[in-house]
Design brief:
homodimer; alpha+beta; NADH Oxidase; 5 strands; about 40% helix
């Protein structure tokens, strides 16, 4: 155990504080101020220290600062968002249309994150092949927490056509887009998730989602 | 911005420290010592503060302490692990068979984590339906970091038949098993991932996985 890092309760509570204060940040909150290079590196360092099945590290990151590329991605969002709105009705649809759901052009930095499948069998991925994708999502969550700890906002844009984004970014055919993100300094981190404040959805109670030994 | 929580660089560096020291812990390291109830609650609190698409919180957790149930899960692991070993050849297969890849019976607590799909359209999930599953993975990564900050080991067991596990745990038909985990105090957190130490896989360099604007 020599030299092993042990954490104390205050450190664990600080981690919870970062988690609880993390928000999905959208375009109406981003500031027009670039993110310092060392902070971008710290966020990427968080990513590559995520767990990955069989230590396969199946992640790839495209960092986008070019306005023309952002504009092309934004066009995919606009098309998909119209289709998304159609899935809601009446008041809910009106509320949907009032929401700002991305910050592609406002955020100084966009990051597209891909799953690049190994070309050989991966230890631990032989029964549930989806765990490779899940490794990439673990990296995403590490980045989101690190961004928040650096007081940088991050937002997940899932209302896009992943094939269109692959084409815009010239991604290899075999890669899969896992997530598309906007990052930047922000005017405000809301106290609660915006959709909770707006009562779009309510917070689930622990007793609804925790089971003992079996369902 | 009144009352908004801002973090300093030391706090961000502590977060990185937790991430870098997080390990996948297997059965040869778990101690036979129960996890205190308040620590289990802190790990679950980390989970439910993960991001979720449209604030859908599509996660459900089965906490398993019963030895008989663990034994049934272990049987699924044994069957799947034999199939897994068959995908490797020669020396690699011998090395595979020397590795301890789970800690189902040794760990005092197992947690099965499911995706429970909403019965209505979810904001943000209309173009990429897989983002509901990804929300559950974000919760998993929060748990893993919190466990580490509490000096509790956690290991992901992916070499199981998810349908068999659903049956053992009497999970609703529509739920999907995302991950199965072993948690407990541990004799040691290795300095590096075990598969890196054993040179099963080598660490990727940043320049291999980072691209600017496009591939």
């Amino acid at each position: 155990m020599e030299g092993e890092r042990l954490f104390n309760r205050e450190e664990a509570d600080l981690l919870l504080d970062i988690m609880v204060n993390r928000r999905d940040v959208r375009g109406n909150r981003f500031l027009d101020r670039p993110i310092e290079e060392d902070r971008i590196q710290q966020i990427l360092l968080a990513a590559v220290n995520a767990p990955s099945v069989g230590f396969s590290q199946p992640w790839e990151f495209v960092l986008i600062k070019c306005n023309e590329i952002k504009q092309q991605i934004k066009e995919s969002f606009i098309r998909e968002n119209e289709k998304g709105a159609d899935q809601f009705e009446g008041e809910k649809q009106k509320e949907y249309n009032r929401l700002k759901l991305e910050g592609i052009c406002e955020a100084p930095l966009n990051i597209a994150i891909f799953y690049s499948q190994a070309q050989k069998p991966v230890l631990g991925q032989t029964s549930m092949s989806e765990v490779g994708l899940y490794s990439v999502v673990c990296a995403i969550q590490n980045m989101w927490l690190m961004a928040r700890a650096l007081n940088i906002g991050m937002g997940w844009v899932s209302i896009i056509d992943p094939e269109k984004v692959k084409q815009i970014l010239k991604a290899p055919e075999q890669n899969k887009l896992v997530g598309y993100f906007c990052l930047g300094y922000t005017s405000q981190f809301l106290k609660q998730p915006e959709l909770e404040i707006l009562k779009w959805e309510s917070r689930k109670e622990m007793k609804e989602i925790i089971f003992n030994d079996t369902y």
